[in-house]
Specification:
single chain, 210 residues, alpha+beta, Peptide Methionine Sulfoxide Reductase, Chain A, six-stranded mixed β-sheet, two-stranded antiparallel ribbon, 8 helices, 8 strands, 45% helix, disordered N terminus
Length: 210
Amino acid sequence: MSGRSGGARGWLAAAWLAVAAASALAQATAAVPTAKATFAGGCFWCVEADFDKVPGVISTTSGYTGGTVTNPTYEQVSSKRTGHAEAVQIVYDPAKVSYEQLLDRYWHSIDPTTKDAQFCDHGSPYRTAIFTHDAAQARAAQESLAALQKSKPFKEPIVTEILPAGPFYPAEEYHQDYYRKNPVRYQYYRSACGRDARVKQLWGDKAAVH
C-alpha cells in the first residue's frame, strides 16, 4: 500500500515539475522583446520567403497596407483601386537581428529603381516601400537610403518610398507561407518572373536570392 501511494506521489511530483517547466518556458518565450518591420517589395510570397531565412526573424505575415480601404481582399487590391501595396510584416528579435540588418536584406532583395512595379508584376500594389513603425526606424531607413544613393551601385535613381506605417491587413490564409505550401508553383513563378536574375544584375554578389 505504501509503495503504491509513494509511487503515486512521485508521479504527481513529476507531473507538477513538468507543468512548472512548461509554464516557465512559456513565460520566458513571452518575455522575449520583439519588434516589427514592414516592407513592400513586390510579390509578398517572395518577400516572405526572403525574410524567413534571416536568423532572428520570428514570423512573417503577408498583407496589404498603404491604402484607404479597410480589410481589403486580394481581388480588391489587385484591381489597383485601393491604394494598398502587397507587403510583409516581420516580427523579429532585436537581440538577434537589428533593424539595420533587415534594411540591408530588404534593399538587396528588390529592384528599387522601378516605380509601381517589381520584375514581371506591374501596378501600384507591387511598388516598393519601407513602412516605419517609429522615429528610430524612420531615421535608419533614411540613412540607409542616403548611403545607397551616395554609393551609386547603379545608374538608375532609387524610387522606393519611406512612409510611416499605417493599418496592416493580413492577406487571405492561402497567401501565407505560399512558398512552403506550393513549392513547385512558387519556384516556377519566381523564376519565370525574373526576380533573382534582376536582383543579381543590380546587386551582384550582395544580392539576396534563392
